[in-house]
């Protein structure tokens, strides 16, 4: 069952991305003018998951191709890599009849002619070979045509014109063959005449020159009916990279927009569903899993006398009947909203917490303290090191990362305040922790931390060392 679930598209969708894909699919299919859609979102925001899962679902009833631009960045011309990917992936979708083999062969041959005729670097060489005139020096060369014999000048111009005509014809022939190939693949899927989707991923990670060349090829060589390109990129970062190559005066944002007919930005503002999925489980069974007395905003009215009872405020994350968050989910959401990691970093942090917990005794594991240290180190390594050394750095953490609160029934306490008590114990001897415990009459979470630290002092003191190990996991 687990294996089958892993093979199901969107099985790990925690951000309602499937709904977004369905929305965009309907829009693309009903918008002939949109040939290239840009999925523009920052690094680590889940673009690769989105386009790969969208492609996995879409290919069930339409022709789809997935091209990882970053994997092909080392190659010369992106046109070659893209054509090779299209051929390889459509071979599996189109079948292996004599007719389809002929169509694939025609596609490869046409692509080769287009490469020779339309690739600027090669065209320059061909022009020079045919006319003895370098294409870059064409303007200079033509200035001296009046000095050439009339027959020679006329011949040179004719060859340039013929070369341009051949290039245009090769491009049109390539488009026709590509259209035939996609139509053949669609028939094999028993598909209605719906657009093929070609997904381009990781464009922003490529060399700026490679990225630009790929966009140029798509714009000029793949502009055919019933074919849509969906390009995932951190377009803002890509624009910065292009500016670094061509200079500050180059308007890279405007330049990139000419390649895209529409743009869509992924929304990562609501992380609750993601956290619920990753830290799934019955919330009633998990209250003891974090070694802190978190309270439910629904049922804590009977746990404390009225004079001690505190209701959650707007800056507090608490379980209730509506959100049904379990204890770990409450803690992780508070960490997430405090330290604001990117989605990709958050996925890494989850793995680090898991590895950390696997190296701790179950009866002594302090989920909050482990998570806090890992989140802080990920957010700012220097501040993390300073934090472990004393209270002054703890104030700097509070200043840099405004905190969410956790609800304990008798208090709404900042996660920095909670961490501050763990830090105080960490910097104290076991006897000093015992002395704190005998004197402390504050909020319920404080006595819980002191008790846990005193009872499992040796194990919890090792947490920074375990953080160093877990943090190396990527």
What does this 3D model show about the protein?
Helices cover 58% and strands 7% of the residues. The radius of gyration is 31 Å and the shape is elongated. The two termini are 28 Å apart. The chain has a 5-stranded parallel sheet with strand order 2-3-4-1-5. Strands 6-7-8 form a 3-stranded mixed sheet. The chain has helices at 2-7, 17-29, 47-58, 78-94, 98-118, 120-131, 138-143, 150-188, 208-221, 235-246, 252-257, 272-278, 327-339, 343-358, 367-379, 381-389, 391-400, 415-426, 430-439, 444-455, 457-461, 463-470; strands at 36-40, 64-68, 196-201, 227-233, 262-264, 316-317, 405-407, 412-414. The protein is α/β, with parallel strands linked by helices and 474 residues long.
Which descriptors apply to this entry?
KAP NTPase domain-containing protein, 8 strands, alpha/beta, Rossmann fold, P-loop_NTPase, 2 domains, five-stranded parallel β-sheet, disordered N terminus, KAP_P-loop, 474 residues
Helix content: 55-70%
- CATH fold title of the largest domain: Rossmann fold
Low-confidence stretches: 1-5, 121-142, 282-288
The number of helices is 22
Instruction: Kindly report the average pLDDT value.
Output: 85
Straight-line distance between termini:
28 Å
What number of structural domains do the residues give? 2
CATH superfamily of the largest domain: P-loop containing nucleotide triphosphate hydrolases
CATH class of the largest domain: Alpha Beta
What does the largest sheet look like?
5 strands, parallel
Structural class: alpha/beta
- Estimated radius of gyration: 31 Å
Spell out the helices and strands N to C: HHEHEHHHHHEHEHHEHEHHHHHEEHHHHH
Protein name: KAP NTPase domain-containing protein
InterPro entries: KAP_P-loop, P-loop_NTPase
Domain KAP NTPase: 32-353
Organism: Pseudomonas lutea
């Amino acid at each position: 069952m687990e294996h089958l679930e892993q093979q199901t598209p969107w099985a790990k969708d925690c951000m309602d991305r499937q709904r977004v894909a369905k929305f965009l699919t309907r829009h693309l299919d009903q918008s002939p003018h949109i040939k290239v859609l840009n999925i523009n979102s920052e690094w680590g925001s889940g673009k690769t998951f989105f386009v790969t899962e969208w492609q996995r679902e879409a290919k069930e009833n339409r022709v789809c191709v997935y091209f990882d631009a970053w994997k092909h960045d080392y190659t010369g011309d992106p046109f070659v890599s893209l054509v090779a990917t299209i051929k390889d992936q459509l071979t599996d979708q189109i079948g292996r009849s004599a007719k389809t083999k002929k169509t694939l062969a025609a596609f490869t041959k046409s692509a080769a002619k287009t490469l020779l005729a339309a690739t600027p670097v090669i065209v320059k060489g061909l022009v020079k070979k045919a006319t003895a005139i370098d294409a870059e020096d064409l303007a200079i060369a033509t200035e001296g045509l009046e000095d050439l014999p009339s027959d020679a000048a006329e011949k040179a111009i004719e060859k340039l014109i013929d070369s341009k005509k051949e290039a245009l014809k090769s491009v049109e022939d390539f488009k026709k063959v590509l259209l035939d190939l996609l139509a053949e693949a669609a028939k094999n899927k028993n598909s209605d005449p719906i657009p093929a989707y070609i997904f381009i991923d990781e464009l922003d990670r490529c060399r700026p020159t490679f990225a630009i060349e790929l966009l140029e090829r798509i714009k000029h060589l793949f502009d055919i009916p019933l074919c849509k390109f969906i390009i995932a990129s951190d377009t803002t970062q890509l624009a910065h990279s292009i500016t670094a190559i061509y200079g500050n005066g180059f308007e890279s944002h405007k330049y990139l927009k000419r390649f895209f007919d529409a743009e869509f930005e992924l929304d990562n503002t609501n992380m609750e569903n993601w956290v619920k999925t990753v830290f799934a489980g019955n919330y009633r069974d998990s209250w003891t899993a974090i070694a802190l007395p978190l309270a439910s905003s629904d049922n804590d009215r009977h746990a404390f006398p009225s004079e001690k009872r505190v209701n959650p405020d707007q800056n507090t994350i608490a379980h209730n009947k509506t959100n049904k968050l379990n204890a770990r989910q409450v803690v992780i959401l508070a960490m997430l909203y405090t330290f604001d990691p990117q989605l990709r970093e958050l996925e890494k942090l989850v793995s680090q917490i898991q590895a950390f917990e696997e190296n701790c005794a179950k009866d002594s594991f302090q989920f909050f303290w482990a998570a806090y240290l890992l989140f802080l180190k990920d957010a700012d390594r220097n501040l993390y090191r300073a934090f472990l050394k004393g209270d002054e750095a703890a104030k700097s953490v509070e200043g840099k990362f405004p905190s969410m609160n956790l609800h304990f029934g008798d208090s709404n306490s900042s996660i920095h305040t909670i961490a501050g008590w763990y830090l105080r114990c960490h910097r104290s001897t076991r006897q000093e922790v015992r002395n704190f415990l005998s004197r402390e009459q504050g909020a319920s979470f404080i006595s819980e931390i002191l008790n846990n630290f005193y009872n499992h002092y040796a194990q919890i003191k090792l947490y920074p060392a375990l953080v160093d190990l877990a943090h190396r996991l990527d």
